[in-house]
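Everyone, study these two lines:
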Amino acid sequence: MLVENPEKQALEIIKRLSVVYPDAKTALNFTTPFEMLVATILSAQSTDKMINKITPALFEKYPDPKAFAEASLAELEQDIKSSGFFHNKAANIIGAARGVVSRFGGVVPSGMADMLTLPGVGRKTANVVLHNAFGLVEGIAVDTHVKRLTERLGLTSNTDPVKIEQDLMALLPRTYWGDFSYYLIDHGRAVCDAKKPHCPECVLKDICPSAFLFIQAE
């Protein structure tokens, strides 16, 4: 259910959530751009808390892109098994590592177009790495929290993450693109739960077109 003025809605959401979550940022632990890339690939269909348990030993065993590029697929699968979907993730990590080594001199590229040539890297992953590892903003990362909340809050009627990103980029000044995702992610974790959102205690309840429906259903 789209609101009448989604641009005004988006700015009001930022205004309120930036007060509630002033330190909103990625929860993934990393020290280099490549570690950020690997952690982000691993985080798909998993939790950041789980990935942060895996990565210390993983990054010690594979300290750089070259080490990942030369890793045994079967062995890496076992190393990351607890992250879920480990077959695809291991293949993507090794593929991305080989691309970084062979085409970018062992250095993670800092541009969207180059990032998207790496296996396992879509716009969400690229946006996360560019923003957190390089301080660059070329788009808005749309994960499951962002997808869910932007629909509930009436900012988009699309369900495809790329189209949602395009809608959000059209609504928000570029200066907000990087942080917007993390406001929604923190709010999604704390209040706007996927199955049972806590609407009565939500700071956005008076402007959220979905809140009345959820409250009535209780």
About this structure: The chain has two domains: 6-24+141-217, 33-134. The chain has twelve helices and no strands. The two ends are 20 Å apart (CA to CA).
